[in-house]
Amino acid sequence: MHHSESEKEAVLVLGIGNILWADEGFGVRAVEALHQAYEFPAEVKLMDGGTQGLYLLPLVQDTDILVIFDAIDYGLPAGTLKLVNDHDVPSYLGVKKMSLHQTGFQEVLALSAITGRYPAKVRLIGVQPLDLDTYGGSLTEPVRNQMESSIGAAIHFLVEQGYPPRRRIRGCVPEPLCPSSVNLAHYEAGIPVGGR
Question: Distance between CA 16 and CA 78 in Å, rounded?
Answer without folding.
Answer: 18
